[in-house]
Amino acid sequence: MVKNLTKVGLGIVTSVGGFLEVGSIGTGLQAGATYRFSLLWAIVVGTICVAFLTEMTGRLAAVSKHTVVDAVRGRFGFPFHAWPFGAQVIVDLFVLASELGGAALAWQLATGISIRVWILPITFGIWLLLWYGTFDSIEQSVALLGLVTLSFAVAAWRLHPDWSDVARGLLPQRPQTDPTQHAYLAVAILGASISPSLVTFYSSGAVEEKWTPKDLLPNRIVAWIGMGFGSTVAMAVVIVAALVLAPRGIHADSYQQAAALLSVPLGRWGFTLFCASLFIGCVGAALELALDLSYIVAQTFGWDWGENKRPIEEARFALTYTIALALVMVPSLLGIDPLKLTMFSMAITVLALPLVVGPLMVVMNDKQYLKAHTNGFVTNAAVIAIVVVAFVLAMLALPLQWLGA
Amino acid sequence: MDKTLDLVRDVLDVQLIDNADCRIGRADGVVLELRQDGPPRVAAIEVGAITLARRIHPTLARWLRVLAIRWLPVSIRSVRLPMSLCRESGVDIAVDVDAHADRRLLRLEKWLIRHVVQRLPGSGA
Q: Which end is more exposed in chain A, N or C (fewer Cβ atoms within 10 Å of the end residue's Cβ)?
């Protein structure tokens, strides 16, 4: 029972990186403030895609003891693998830079002191957690602290939304105004939630936790519970923004505009909870991304890896996240706006998505890796649909960002 | 390895593990021995960044070699592991070596441990 509870932690940590980080909160706030509930369907679609992807990659790890990166390099060879690998390293670095900026922004909102002052101690703190911590300790603390983001769900509940209106938003509908920006926000929500790092991080986490074929049922439950948690909070962000910001004509173009969002339903604690949620979501996502960078580099080159090992046992793995963290501080130190960085990161995330997700169509049907647990009809249909979604998003991302952002 | 292997599917790019179950790299290349009295034979597996770069483009491999000589404290010359030391282990290849004792293997890792990681607090040294 306790062992299964710790597995839920992996689902929640992964979902924090998908749904509760700086990009997802930002797009959720804009979607709710501008279009009320009409973009909730994009979160539902994102949740279904991510839950299918995490279940599949968790299954691959539990049966074969190998990760997605292992399987893609093994099956497709390095000359092909170099493309998704290179794309994902670039995406992870940019998103990591955005998350550090988001965490520093939370402190700037709370204290009024510039991001440039906060970025160094926050990055150092994250490095200390990675250097001294184990995968289990990081996973459990992020999962536990991540519960603070439920304050958005409580706020949504206390605002007594018209639930029939909310339910209507679960189905795609034609917007009454500015369809280009509406489409852009839909792409941004999907792009922020279906992140390539979720796929590689979750399978690496399952190998770290030594999952076996006995864990296949828990894996399925964890994938859906974890993503359900992230999705619930992401939808709550949209609902709160729709009920608090939209009536006041605030479009949430910046976090500063949206910071008082929770004060209406939650009183004087609202502002603190908003900053805490933003900070914890961003730190959780930053930990996930820094680890993901080390995972994909180590697995691509066949190095020994594992956050449960001490740095002296896998120096290159530990130094990869160390160098990455040092590099990604630079944009915030130079004063680049975290929201602009986030928007750019989301656009390149969407472009990289087909490269990372596409090979799963082959890998998840490989009997040498998955033995009797290859994809069935439903999961194959799901992965094809996700690849189609990924390609459509990649085609639309840049034109829509240019026209609608 | 006794049974018939598909060279590209079962050998090239596969994870290599040593006697202590430590991941020691991937099969970045294979070395074929041409024989007059029979078909070519796989003589060794090659491990190393230069071999890997050569598979993308020979120029990339040349640049990498020059950069490594100029900037890296240890050689990144590729290592050849004779096929006689290799056997299948699931989807991986087990190599009959002890990577931590073998001076040819994990050169950069060992240098980084000695000169960087070991000197930092909390490294587990």
A: N
Cβ contact B26–A73 (<8 Å): yes
In order, the DSSP letters of A252-270 are -SSHHHHGGGGHHHHTTHH
Note the pLDDT tens digit of each residue in A263-292. Answer: 989 988 999 999 999 999 999 999 999 999
- Cα of B37 to nearest chain A Cα, Å: 31
pLDDT at residue A3 tops 70: no
Tokens representing A364? 């998840």
A·B CB contacts under 8 A: 80
Q: Has residue B55 got a pLDDT over 60?
A: yes
Quote the tokens at residue A147: 């519960």
Closest CB to A310 among B8, B49, B124: B124
Whole-model pTM over 0.80? yes
Is B13's CB within 8 Å of A304's CB? no
CB-based contact B15 A66, cutoff 8 Å: yes
Name all contacts of A371-377 with Cβ < 8 Å and 24+ positions apart: A371/A63, A371/A64, A373/A59, A373/A63, A373/A213, A373/A216, A375/A56
Residues of A in contact with B12 (CB under 8 A): 77
CATH number for the domain that contains residue A282? 1.20.1740.10
Q: How many structural domains is chain A composed of? A: 1
Mean pLDDT computed over every residue of chain B: 92
Q: Tens of pLDDT along A103-158? A: 999 999 999 999 999 999 999 999 999 999 999 999 888 888 988 999 999 999 99
Distance of CA B40 to the CA centre of its chain: 21
Q: What is the mean pLDDT of residues B65-75?
A: 93
pLDDT at A396: 83
Shortest CA gap B34–chain A (Å): 24
Query: Token pair of B21, please?
Result: 């179950």
Whether residue A293 contacts residue A320, with contact meaning beta carbons closer than 8 Å, is answered with yes
Beta-strand runs (E) in A280-363: none
Residue A153, both tokens = 């769900």
Shortest CB distance from B56 goes to which of A79, A301, A310?
A79
Q: Please indicate whether, in this complex, the C-beta atoms of A310 and B49 are within 8 angstroms of each other.
A: no
For helices A269-301 and A2-19, angle between their N-to-C axes, nearest 10 degrees: 100
Backbone angles phi, psi at B81, to 5 degrees: -110, 115
Taking CA atoms, what residue in B is nearest to A132? B122
Q: Rounded to whole angstroms, how far apart are CA atoms A315 and A294?
A: 11
Domains parsed from chain B with CATH numbers: 7-98 (2.30.30.240)
Q: For residue B97, is pLDDT > 70?
A: yes
Q: How far is residue A119's CA from residue A102's CA, in Å, rounded to a whole number?
A: 10
For residue A228, the enclosing domain spans 2-402
Residues of A in contact with B119 (CB under 8 A): none
Of A196, A207, A199, residue with least CA distance to A92: A196
